[in-house]
Design brief:
OB fold (Dihydrolipoamide Acetyltransferase, E2P); globular; EC 3.6.3.20; ABC-type ferric iron transporter activity; ATP binding
């Protein structure tokens, strides 16, 4: 296991990049602690696979360094980085048995037979595949094949990091939750440093202790699942995480007060002194409620999703989503929207520009 440090990392697929637009990965500085569970989350093309390939040694970055426990491995090939990688599609040998597949990474490194037998038994028990150890891999279902592929990545106990590149993409939806739970359990038991790449927020938030959210080659926020939900640092994070995502509404600021469609909106706290650029108000639907007074709106859509109702209402030309429990209005109803102040934030050019209210200290 290792602490992984990325310093001033940038990468371009152009031999002579002219500007930021030519970089698939803009400047990245990260520290991943030994034994942590991390996720790289973002849409296709955001740079997460490029970053994973740089960490694994499949790509040499245009600029910057990769350190494993302080040792510079930037130019080392993959076989000298002591890593394990699990790919989107299962990488196993169909002609081998499950036992032989799990043992292969250890045999390949000259590990003694007794240790191999012990490690294979431990991993098989963790993955719940003990009863199929002597079956040929060719006859396994897709989810069991991916389990074996994961097991091949986990069977070594000397790796610096285990990396997962969209490992559940080919798995049937009803089986994904089971493998996600199993992977989290495995991390808690083996304590390897793990990095999980995905575009699926559910996978990232259920697996990782810390999630790195990426957009257009940039890291826009790093935090726990709770931190990303409770206080998005960027409107992209608020929109990408959550279902439905955060309401992002056009705003004006006059004399330190934020306005939406001419209505004053109370924010979580004071606005940063300088807010150049486009300003917007961000509030999650969970913190929008229907009230007797507030911002006038007209209900445009009502969706019962089982646990609650999602109400969409129009304020002028702008849609605002609200999550409601209990009786819901009907389409066309006139309502008033109330924004929970401590969950209402101002953003300037996408980045958070309001500050939390200072809590009064106890007398």
């Amino acid at each position: 296991m290792a602490k992984i440090t990325l310093k001033n990392l940038r990468h371009s697929y152009f031999p002579e990049p002219k500007g930021p637009q030519d970089y698939a990965l803009k400047e990245v500085d990260l520290d991943w602690q030994d034994g942590g569970a991390y996720a790289l989350l973002g849409p296709s093309g955001c740079g997460k696979s490029t970053l994973l390939n740089i960490i694994s040694g499949l790509l040499v970055p245009s600029e910057g360094q990769i350190l494993f426990d302080g040792q510079d491995v930037t130019k080392l090939p993959p076989d000298q980085r002591n890593i394990a990688q699990v790919f989107q599609f299962p990488v196993i040998y169909d002609t081998m048995t499950v036992r032989e597949n799990l043992a292969f990474p250890l045999k390949n490194r000259g590990v003694d037979p007794a240790t191999i037998e012990k490690r294979v038994a431990e991993i098989a028990e963790m993955l719940e595949v003990t009863d199929m150890l002597d079956r040929k891999a060719a006859g396994l279902s897709p989810d069991n094949k991916q389990k074996i592929s994961m097991g091949r990545g986990l069977v070594r106990d000397d790796v610096n990091v285990v990396m997962f590149d969209e490992p559940l993409t080919v798995i049937d939806p009803h089986l994904k939750w089971k493998l996600r739970t199993k992977l989290k359990e495995l991390h808690q038991r083996v304590s390897h440093t793990m990095i999980y790449v995905t575009h699926d927020q559910t996978e990232a938030l259920t697996f990782a202790d810390q999630v790195v959210v990426m957009q257009l080659g940039e890291v826009v926020q790093i935090g726990t699942p709770e931190e990303l939900f409770e206080r998005p640092a960027h409107t992209f994070v608020g929109h990408f995480i959550g279902s439905p995502g955060m309401n992002v509404l056009p705003a004006e600021v006059k004399d330190g007060q934020a306005y939406f469609e001419g209505q004053p909106v109370t924010l979580e706290g004071p606005i940063a002194s300088d807010v150049p650029g486009t300003v917007e108000i961000g509030i999650r639907p969970e913190f929008v409620s229907l009230a007797e007074t507030g911002i006038p709106a007209t209900v445009s859509r009502v969706a019962d999703v089982g646990r609650h109702t999602v109400v969409e209402a129009m304020v002028g030309a702008h849609k605002v989503a609200a999550i409601q429990n209990g009786p819901a209005p009907q389409k066309g109803d006139k309502v008033h929207l109330h924004f929970t102040p401590e969950q209402t934030r101002l953003y300037a050019d996408g980045w958070i520009a309001s500050e939390p209210a200072q809590k009064e200290s106890a007398a």
